[in-house]
Amino acid sequence: MSHHDSHGMNLVLHVWRQKGPNEPGKLEQYEAKNVSPDQSFLEMLDEVNEQLIKTGGDPIAFDHDCREGICGMCSQVINGVPHGGQERTTVCQLHMRNFKDGDTIYIEPWKAKAFPIQRDLIVDRTALDKISQAGGYTSAHTGGVADGNAILVPKPSADYAMDAAECIGCGACVAACPNGSAMLYTSAKVAQLAELPQGQAEAAKRVCNMVDALQENGFGNCSNHYECQAACPKGISVKFIARLNREYQKALFK
Amino acid sequence: MRILTSTVGRKILMSITGQLLILFVLIHMIGNTTIFFGALNAYAEHLHSLPPLVWIFRLVMLSAIAVHICYGVQVTLENKAANPGAYAVKKQLKANFASENMIWTGLLLALFILYHLAQFTMHLTPDVVVGLDAINRPDVFKMVSTSFANAGIAVVYFFAMIMLFLHLSHGIPSFLQTMGWNNDKTIPVFGTGGKVVSAFLMLVYISIPAAILVGALK
User: Fold this and answer.
1) Which residue of chain A comes nearest to B186, CA vs CA?
2) CA B74, CA B178: separation in Å to the nearest integer?
3) Nearest residue in A to B75, CA atom
């Protein structure tokens, strides 16, 4: 079929299929034949879908966009780990060379109360947007473009804020969390903005509002399992959660 | 009051009450080790020579436990609701038996505390021998050594201390994180340190009924 015939793998997939938000879902079995080790996980699914379409089946719905690991759209729990368990790797950047011929792969959507399943592997992550809308920005007037460089940011602070800003908002932290909490996501934004001079003016209000939004949108409480950091495709550290806790305590006395 | 209802506020209260309880566990352990120096009765008498102080201490501990249990149960129920837990396959990367079973190790410890108080504080259990020693002090040593000579009772204490180890091996690093006293360098140190301190507490506590059971303390 393709030039990869000699290296092709045959895999058994168990994929979560669900027609709509209020429909019951279940795992269904598919075969992925002649998979190239050079394919990405999503390309493998593309081929499965092509076969499904050719045979009159219903293609598997999944989220994706940039396919270069920066947009945060892809969202699959593969063999029990969000994004498949390769460190700092999104599903789109996970390659089939990580699997062997004959492997059985379980593919499920993010599962958390805050992320209702829309269809198959697609979940609604609006709840994360609600958290950001509650304070993940600066509204203090910071001047025009030219003034941007007038506010000096120490290099260590810039690095720290950039580490926090690496979050792509995919929601793997929530999918991995035994409590369905979005504390890592929330803390990354709180820490990033609290570290920068432009964000400090609203730091207290921000942490309170974002934490409230976290609670109001169906997420659970953080109990420090640190499962989130391990699953995060950007390696966001739970040190930012410690920072959020500090910012919250400061806000209590404000 | 934001601190009483918010997800982070309640976590901070869990942490502070937890710290009070750990402090108690530490002081209680040091006090108990007087048994190895033949000073348990003297220690117990000193401890109870100031009844108002004893009662203030008891009330503080009781309130800390009440807050810790109420919030513990509440957040656990909320967390179960927030996570339908319906993955067909779920691999834990970092969470462990201790972190996942805080509610159960905690509730078993609460039951143990009730038993322990009923036994050695209120003297309600049948095994308890109440009497005075040669110089007319309450003979705590005799009471404890008689009860712990019963293997069944000693095993209950061993089991409870394993629960304490599990609860604190997650609880210690967790309270530090919640207070915000953490960064990339300290996270692994506190993780290991929490286990070491918990194991130390467990072993010292267990050494007392164990020593009595094997007849090393008479």
Assistant:
1) A239
2) 17
3) A221
We report the CATH number of the domain holding residue B184 as 1.20.1300
**Does residue A140 carry a pLDDT above 70?**
no
User: Hey, are the CB atoms on B95 and A178 less than 8 Å from each other?
Assistant: yes
Contact list in B for residue A113 (CB cut-off 8 A) is 81-84
A113 and A61 inside one domain: yes
- Residue B67: CA count within 13 A, CB half-sphere: 22
Domain count, chain A: 2
Are A220 and B82 contacting, i.e. CB atoms less than 8 angstroms apart?
Answer: yes
Do A189 and A216 touch, CB atoms closer than 8 A? no
Contacts of B82 in chain A (CB under 8 A): 112-114, 179-181, 218-221
A238:B75 CB<8 A: no
In a domain, B218, yes or no: no
- Structural domain boundaries enclosing A164: 126-252
Q: Domain boundary at A100, A122, A144, which? A: A122
Other C-beta atoms closer than 10 Å to the C-beta of A130 total 18
pLDDT, tens only, B131-170: 999 999 999 999 999 999 999 999 999 999 999 999 999 9
Closest CA to A138 of A70, A185, A189, A213: A189
Q: Are A162 and A65 in contact (CB under 8 A)?
A: no
Q: Taking residues B79-104, report their average pLDDT.
A: 93
- Both A155 and A202 in one domain: the answer is yes
A residues 214-233 closer than 8 Å to B (CB) = 214-215, 218-227, 229-231
Residues A105 and A12 in one domain: yes
How many Cβ atoms are within 10 Å of A58's Cβ, its own excluded?
12
Alpha carbon of B145: minimum distance to chain A alpha carbons (Å): 39
The residue of chain B with its CA nearest to that of A86 is: B93
CATH code of residue A203: 1.10.1060.10
CB contact under 8 A, A224 and B89: no
Q: Which of A179, A183, A249 sits opposite B12 (nearest CB)?
A: A249
Range of the domain at B58: 2-213
pLDDT beyond 80 at A199 = yes
Q: Quick one: pLDDT band at residue A149, thresholds 50, 70, 90?
A: confident
Residue B200 is assigned to a structural domain of this protein: yes
Q: Within this chain, do residues A136 and A116 fall inside the same structural domain, yes or no?
A: no
For this complex, say whether ipTM is above 0.85. yes
